[in-house]
């Protein structure tokens, strides 16, 4: 991996995201871009310098954000990892994705919640929109991940071919940390696959991935999300990988599974959108 994007809103979750990205970067020899967005519905980049002067409040917030973001980064032990700071003005999730696209990012590491979060809230709205729109993998964290967390991963899927490109995008992290991968099919009363067929699907999916240590499991539970979490907790899994789709009826887990797992557990989730 060459480039990791870390959105920063100065919450404790953003701090955990940067610390996690630093751990990944130190092993993968990646650089990091920390991005803060001054939120406004204005199409800021299309405004002339003269028109921007009519929005002194935004100009002040932009200047303050640049100083604050630099200070935020300098408060961390970077360990020689190259870290740059970028402040954008606009709709937060759109600007985060714009920066990721422009820099051809390999990964976005983002806090599961943002500033002002309270326990009764679901996930941060920016995270949900980044998950749904990012072309690169998104690693959502509540806690700081360490090296051990990155060495054991569940990849939960129904293992159709449309999920394979998403898994391939996860491969750099898997390779860098020599992660052992646990393929997992969760059978529920409403979505059941014969264990033999599930194993065949996983065997077929694993062809060409012989350079990765892969274990295969079929797990029975009442609900997909709770089954993934329960299996992961019982097996001391460091993070969960999901190939997510917005398309109804698609033979893969829907992106709402990613949201629910993040909400109901502290296990980090690596999500890749199926094209």
Tell me what you see in this structure.
The protein is an alpha/beta fold. The protein has two domains: 3-141, Rossmann fold; 149-273, Rossmann fold, CATH 3.40.50.620. 39% of the residues lie in helices and 23% in strands. The chain has nine helices and ten strands. It has helices at 12-28, 49-52, 56-74, 92-102, 125-133, 164-176, 195-206, 224-234, 255-264; strands at residues 3-7, 31-39, 83-90, 107-111, 138-141, 152-156, 180-187, 214-220, 239-244, 269-273. Strands 3-2-1-4-5-10-9-6-7-8 form a ten-stranded mixed beta sheet, sandwiched between helices. Helix 5 links the parallel strand 4 (107-111) and strand 5. Helix 8 (224-234) packs across helix 9. The protein starts with a strand and ends with a strand. The model is unreliable at 247-252 (pLDDT under 50).
Entry summary:
This protein starts with a strand and ends with a strand. The chain is α/β, with parallel strands linked by helices and 275 residues long. The protein has helices at 12-28, 49-52, 56-74, 92-102, 125-133, 164-176, 195-206, 224-234, 255-264, and strands at 3-7, 31-39, 83-90, 107-111, 138-141, 152-156, 180-187, 214-220, 239-244, 269-273.
Please render the helix and strand layout as text.
Blueprint: E1 3-7, H1 12-28, E2 31-39, H2 49-52, H3 56-74, E3 83-90, H4 92-102, E4 107-111, H5 125-133, E5 138-141, E6 152-156, H6 164-176, E7 180-187, H7 195-206, E8 214-220, H8 224-234, E9 239-244, H9 255-264, E10 269-273
Parallel strand pairs: 1-2, 1-4, 2-3, 4-5, 6-7, 6-9, 7-8, 9-10
Antiparallel strand pairs: 5-10
Helix pairs in contact: 4-5, 8-9
């Amino acid at each position: 991996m060459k480039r990791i994007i870390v959105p920063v809103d100065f919450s404790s979750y953003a701090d955990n995201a940067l610390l996690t990205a630093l751990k990944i970067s130190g092993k993968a020899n990646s650089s990091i871009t920390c991005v803060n967005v001054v939120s406004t519905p204005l199409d800021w980049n299309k405004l002339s310098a003269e028109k921007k002067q009519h929005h002194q409040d935004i100009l002040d917030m932009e200047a303050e954000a640049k100083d604050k973001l630099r200070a935020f980064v300098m408060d961390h032990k970077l360990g020689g990892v190259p870290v740059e700071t970028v402040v954008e003005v606009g709709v937060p999730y759109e600007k985060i994705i714009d920066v990721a696209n422009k820099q051809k990012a390999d990964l976005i590491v983002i806090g599961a919640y943002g500033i002002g979060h309270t326990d009764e809230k679901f996930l941060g709205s920016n995270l949900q929109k980044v998950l749904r729109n990012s072309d690169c993998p998104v690693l959502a964290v509540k806690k700081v991940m360490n090296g051990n967390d990155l060495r054991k991963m569940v990849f939960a899927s129904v293992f159709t071919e449309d999920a394979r490109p998403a898994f391939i995008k996860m491969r750099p992290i898997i390779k860098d940390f020599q992660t052992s991968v646990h393929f997992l099919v969760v059978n529920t009363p409403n979505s059941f696959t014969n264990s033999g067929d599930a194993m065949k699907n996983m065997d077929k999916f694993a062809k060409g991935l012989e350079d990765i240590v892969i274990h295969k499991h079929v797990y029975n539970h009442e609900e997909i999300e709770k089954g993934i979490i329960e299996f992961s907790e019982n097996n001391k899994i460091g993070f969960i990988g999901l190939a997510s789709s917005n398309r109804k009826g698609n033979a893969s887990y829907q992106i709402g599974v990613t949201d629910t797992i993040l909400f109901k557990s502290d296990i980090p989730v690596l999500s890749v959108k199926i094209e």
